[in-house]
Amino acid sequence: MAENHPVGFQWVIEARERGAKIIHVDPRFTRTSAMADIWVPLRAGSDILFLGALVNYVLTNNKEFREYVVRYTNAPTILRDDFKDTEDLDGLFSGWDAEGKKYDPGTWLYRSAPRKDAGEFPGHAEAGGGHGKDRGGEAQEITNFDWDFSMEDPQCVFQVLKRHFSRYTPEMVERYCGVPKDVFLKTAETFSSASGPEKTAAICYAVGWTQHSKGVQIIRTAAILQLLLGNIGRPGGGILALRGHASIQGSTDVSTLYDIFPGYLPVPFFGADSGTLKDYIKKHRVRIGLWSNFDSYIISLLKAYYGDAATKDNDFGFNWLPRVTGDHSHYGYWLDMQDGKMDGLFVMGQNPAVGAANGRLERTALSKLKWLVVRDMVETETASFWLDSPEVTRGELSPEKIATEVFLFPAAGTAEKSGTFTNTQRLLQYRNKAVEAPGYSRNETWFMYHLGRRLKERAKNDQRPRNVALNALTWDYPVEGENREPSVEAVLKEINGWTVSDRKQLPNIQNLKNDGSTACGAWIYCGVFPEANRNRANERAPKDLLGHGWGFSWPNDCRIIYNRASARPDGTPWSERKKLVWWDKEKKEWTGLDNPDYKKDLAPDTPDDLDSGVGITGLGGARPFTLHSDGVGWLYVASGLKDGPLPTHYEPLESVVKNPLYAQQNDPAAQKKERPDNPYAKSFGDPRYPYVLTTYRLTEQHTAGGMTRTLSHLAELQPELFVEVSPELAEEIGLEHGGWATISTPRASVNARVLTTRRMRPMWIEGRRIHQDGLPYHWGYKGMATGDIVNDLIGINEEPNVRIMESKALVCNVEPGKNGHRGERRDENIAAVS
Predict the structure, then answer these.
(1) pTM of the model
(2) By three-state DSSP, how is residue 571 classified?
(3) How far apart are CA 407 and CA 170, in angstroms?
(4) CA distance 271 to 248
(5) Sign of the C-alpha dihedral computed for residues 105, 107, 108 and 109 taken in this order
(6) CA 742 to CA 823: how far, in whole Å?
(7) What is the SS3 assignment for 169?
(8) Does residue 441 surpass a pLDDT of 80?
(9) How many CA atoms are closer than 13 Å to the CA of 15, on its beta-carbon side?
(10) Rounded-to-10 torsion of CA 216, 221, 225, 227
(11) How far apart are CA 553 and CA 256, in angstroms?
């Protein structure tokens, strides 16, 4: 965090100066480690083993925040008797279909849920992974749960959780994570002590957790730990995703992912939920909680998309929406491209020739396109793949034979455009343009607006059915200035939403309707522009420590989500020190230091009515997790995940060791995408690749380097690609500090300068010394600072829930000297594939 998010890290330092303890878990000793009270080096890819041992420590030593766990989590919920855990099936859950390589999650449901064999099973989402899939479906539709509030029933979630993590011990952590037992125990005691009415702890993570073949389940383990300690919905608690850009959160909220619409509404999948609007709503709406208004959210979105053309008679244009027909994620697209199934591609603000896994395949696939549009501030490797890529240098591609027509458009930089960022705490902050972009540079809003305008102009004279949706699409944003820039405030107003009849801005989410009378571009952002002349994202007058008055945090400017959990079930604060929101008996409303993330007048003693209640009211007054229809935090996920209801330790797809817990080596639902142009090492113990490899970022460079390697001062600060190795490895294989090394995986080999450092230390794993190596991935063959492309080493694969690749834990070989051609696979690796 100190290196990659230095501005945010200042608040960590301030907390430490006020007495907070800082624990840093990382294979490398970094600037963050230097500022921490405890540094925990671990083997890359062993995160669930480590976190699971923390969970086991909490449960074994009765460190859980008992009243919070009983009332605010699903720990008391009783599971079906035919559910089988990984402890029963040696690394698999019940329901595994070995032939189809996927789970049937019927046995994961709660005991009182309808049974599939009785014809009552509502069905599991057939669609692929993606955000926002964890509501509609089995468990969320079933609300007549069986509970045991003593949490003694052997089939209740609490007892299942205990058994599941019982073998995740300090000894196992020492043996297979490489963390000394005394360091683990100190960490476990320190962290678990930040619990109860008076204390909380937060967890910050970044792509070091997400970019794994089981990345979602790593973060799930952290969520289990925080729920057990009562650290969700309370000040000083939570789990913060440290985003790699200023508005990655915004990119998922108002969404650039293929399978969600703005506000995490699922894109209909062809054949699964794409028949009628009624069927789609029935599949995804739930009776209790915030998703009970799913129909209002989607119909208001359709009105924003299609305006007057969206009517009740035509399902508000539902059939004009696109359908998901397969894997349309980044890697799904690229494999299709490599196989000649794509004609064209837009690349805007990305540099996949450098920044994406298996760069050799990515660049080769670009040569199969008919056309490619690149928008960036410089000519990136993606734009010039046809001219000077390693494949051209090696003679694998010939510029004369590449038919791809490349269009390079100059883009505006951050300071050259207005608009909003949404950061990790869901905070929208509006930025105003500082300077005009030079020459023909234009921002993304300008480009997309005028592209859409031209497409609509062509479509209006072509009334074929294929153009009905495009002709219906609203595209009437006002333009400003000499370059006819669309007004981004007008776009934000549409995102906020209005009443259709008079275009009056909507003040909050509760105003959205399901009858077509409201339009809203993203229901979670409703309230950011509540009045015609009030852009709350642009407000800069903070009134309190939580920053109310500075920007707008969704939903409803709530700064800490699920903050009803900051009060006891009776509505009083857990403690004076940790008070946040509470029930005001005299005013009969929720009040406090934050905007309550709850129905304001719903008294804490209101009984729940899970059998027949509707909306938030159906949850009663003491169920804080309003996005779940049981109103509690999920230690166990009965529906919505594709690789199991509980996190389980699996080794990386390529590992130096065998799974110490189960016969099942890897996450069974992960997709390796193994093929001749995307080869793999043996799943464990491949003698050709004896070392662990992880990749990371540097302060002085940024992601794929397009914005930093072209700047002289940053190029001077980090001029060359280097590999971090321990002094022990350097001595063992003859590496010279400052000299050259060749790092190889089954995909490619790269050359890098040797940085011999104690920051990267060997570990004793299963009685033998294991070396880990680290590579930053910013370099390419253009700009002022050039170097080999590290992501050429990474395999294309997909985590089963969100389809992210595994780049933080793989295997490699390291040799002294500068061997082979840039990005080339070694002959022995090619032979291994065949």
Answers:
(1) 0.95
(2) coil
(3) 56
(4) 31
(5) positive
(6) 11
(7) coil
(8) yes
(9) 18
(10) 50
(11) 20
